[in-house]
Amino acid sequence: MNAKETDLLKKTPTEYDIHPLIKNRWSPRKFADTPITETDLNHLFEAGRWAPSCYNWQPWRIVWGIKGSETYDRIFSHLSEFNKDWVINAPVLLLTAYKKTTPEGKDNFHALHDLGQFVAMMSIQAQHMGIAVHQMAGVNPDKAKAEFGFPEEYHVATAVALGHYGGDMDDLSDDLKDQEKAERSRNRVEYFTFQGNYVDRAELDK
């Protein structure tokens, strides 16, 4: 790994050893000028394709657009104003959606979980390719759903920005620069795992 690549890594204070593809993954708001091709995207989608899902129903649906395309602009138009401020430099935008019902028309309680597994698999493949994945809750799901013609039994969940790690920090506002430089943190494993009954760790911390 060269010096430039090292500069793109964020320190991840893990307590147990994990794979570098997971440890070094993070969600930047700036991206290198390196383009992402349709072939690159197909590698990412192929990784997501093999995610596990309930009864192998594969409820995920992905709308994608490369910067400069009409689809990119249509996705962009449904992002929150906060996300529009920084995502303008992203080479690719995605919308993630899922089918809420089973083939029999019943509620598929696990569909959102399965979409998450698709994106997780895609994110690991992206990390392997030096591509950053930044998921966004700030999207108008109902307007995006209508814009792209999804039937009633579908729900738009998130938007996703894709781009190679890199880019100029000066492209960001001062507040976002601080967030980009901030140290990473997560709850300890003991906070969310239980060998027995659930315990509200937040209550114990008071």
From TrEMBL:
The keyword Cell membrane does not apply. Belongs to the nitroreductase family. Keywords: Oxidoreductase. It holds the Pfam family Nitroreductase. InterPro entries: Nitroreductase, Nitroreductase-like. Residues 22-164 form the Nitroreductase domain. This is Nitroreductase domain-containing protein. The keyword ATP-binding does not apply.
